């Protein structure tokens, strides 16, 4: 019998295991992951950005935990000799109508306690010589890191603190008992007093397996990237982002360097026909029908028909994708970029068509379900782990 069992070996599950074993060193803890390695899905396919927290609603979990997480992630990398780079970011307005949006974003950043400054087009040129814009915001705390390296260190720390780490262990059933839960897997049964669901792309299905009603359904969106050819990397120094479209819940295509020296451009955001839809033509019938029969998806599509169509067109047209990039760096040409691996965002969507805008944790019946933890969850992972553990009943441990 375990005191705690965590499902999901992404960055949130691993950070929770690390925090849980630190707070309850005498507890017996297991972490179950269906893949053969850690961070195999969202974490291992993300942009590697250490976010600042500028975008998020003041007072939200995202705003608070991202700001704190930026600091704790940097400190963690320093302590454990993990390569990172605080490269900074410019967020730029390229058209007149974006200038008020830029001002609003600046005010939000100030409200969130982020160290930022307004910069004019000439000052942007000093930071990013190849960017063309009207004005921008300089965010000095934005950085880059390899989150797979971070996850491997989380796992090593958790294991050193006594956590039983179980790879290749797919959860197939969950039974609630008077003692807690029986977790059926592809390997064996695990009996646990308290269950923590950090299943990411499958968090809603795991919630349902535990006989709880998930407050939202996971709808997968694939983010498709290109990367600059190495000889064109000089075009980008740090992260370069457009002003977000307030009518669409994604940040828009942008440029950012990676810790391995490559420079990525993207992503767009298109519906995935499979929860693990890393390729355009990946398809799973159950996943597809899960989305197509969900009223919330169609309500979302009705809210953003033009934006959704543009994302799809950009997915299949390299020239249109390049045109989006040229809004930021006019010099970029189609021959300068090559396809790069895609990622998938597990977006929690409510039945009314609204996207869950904050981290969402459901706590009941000797279980905790992390029902929504999209970006900036990697940046905030240490703080999310602490937040989850703070909600765990500690009377018996």
Please provide a written account of the structure.
The protein has two domains: about 1-45 and about 150-215 and about 355-390, FAD/NAD(P)-binding domain (3-Layer(bba) Sandwich); about 85-145 and about 220-350, D-Amino Acid Oxidase, Chain A, domain 2, CATH 3.30.9.10. It is globular, with a radius of gyration of 21 Å. It is α+β, with helices and mostly antiparallel strands and about 400 residues long. It has helices at about 10-25, 60-80, 100-110, 120-125, 145-160, 205-210, 285-290, 295-305, 305-315, 320-325, 380-390; strands at about 1-5, 30, 50, 85, 90-95, 115-120, 135-140, 145, 165, 170-175, 180-185, 190-195, 215-230, 240, 255, 265, 270, 335-350, 360-365, 365-370.
Features:
397 residues, D-Amino Acid Oxidase, Chain A, domain 2, FAD/NAD(P)-binding domain, 30% helix, globular, 2 domains, 11 helices, 20 strands
The level-1 CATH class of the largest domain: Alpha Beta
Structural class comes to alpha+beta
CATH architecture of the largest domain: 2-Layer Sandwich
Approximate strand percentage: 25-35%
- The total count of strands amounts to 20
Radius of gyration, Cα only, in angstroms? 21 Å
Q: What is the approximate shape? A: globular
Largest sheet at a glance?
A: 8 strands, mixed
Q: Look up the CATH topology of the largest domain.
A: D-Amino Acid Oxidase, Chain A, domain 2
**Helical stretch count?**
11
In short:
This protein has 11 helices and 20 strands. It is α+β, with helices and mostly antiparallel strands and 397 residues long. The chain folds into 2 domains: 2-44 and 148-215 and 357-390, FAD/NAD(P)-binding domain, CATH 3.50.50; 86-143 and 218-349, D-Amino Acid Oxidase, Chain A, domain 2.
């Amino acid at each position: 019998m375990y005191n705690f069992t965590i499902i999901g070996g992404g960055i949130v599950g691993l950070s929770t295991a690390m925090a849980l074993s630190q707070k309850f060193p005498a507890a017996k803890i297991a972490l179950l992951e269906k893949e053969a390695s850690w961070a195999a899905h969202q974490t291992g396919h993300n942009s590697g950005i250490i976010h600042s927290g500028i975008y998020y609603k003041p007072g939200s979990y995202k705003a608070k935990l991202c700001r704190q997480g930026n600091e704790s992630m940097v400190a963690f990398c320093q302590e454990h000799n993990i390569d990172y780079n605080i490269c900074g970011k410019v967020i730029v307005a390229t058209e007149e109508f974006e200038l008020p949006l830029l001002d609003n974003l600046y005010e939000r950043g100030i409200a969130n306690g982020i160290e930022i400054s307004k910069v004019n087009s000439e000052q942007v040129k000093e930071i990013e010589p190849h960017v063309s814009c009207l004005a921008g915001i300089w965010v000095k705390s934005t950085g880059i890191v390899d989150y797979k390296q971070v996850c491997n260190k989380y796992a090593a720390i958790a294991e050193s603190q006594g956590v039983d780490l179980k790879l290749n262990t797919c959860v197939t059933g969950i039974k609630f008992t008077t003692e807690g839960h029986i977790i059926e897997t592809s390997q064996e049964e695990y009996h646990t007093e308290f269950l923590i669901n950090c299943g990411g792309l499958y968090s809603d299905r795991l919630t349902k397996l535990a006989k709880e009603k998930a407050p939202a359904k996971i709808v997968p969106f694939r983010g498709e990237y290109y990367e600059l050819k190495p000889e064109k990397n000089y075009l980008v120094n740090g992260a370069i982002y457009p002003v977000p479209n307030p009518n669409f819940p994604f940040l828009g295509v942008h440029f950012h360097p990676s810790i391995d020296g490559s420079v990525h451009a993207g992503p767009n955001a298109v519906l995935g026909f499979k929860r693990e839809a890393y390729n355009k033509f990946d398809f799973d019938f159950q996943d597809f029908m899960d989305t197509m029969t969900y009223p919330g998806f169609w309500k979302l599509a009705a809210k953003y028909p033009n934006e959704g169509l543009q994302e799809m067109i950009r997915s299949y047209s390299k020239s249109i994708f390049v045109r989006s990039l040229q809004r930021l760096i006019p010099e970029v040409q189609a021959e300068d970029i090559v396809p790069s691996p895609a990622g998938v965002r597990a977006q929690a969507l409510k039945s009314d068509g609204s996207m869950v805008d904050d981290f969402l944790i459901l706590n009941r019946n000797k279980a905790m379900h992390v029902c929504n933890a999209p970006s900036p969850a990697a940046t905030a992972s240490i703080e999310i782990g602490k937040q989850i553990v703070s909600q765990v009943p500690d009377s018996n441990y």
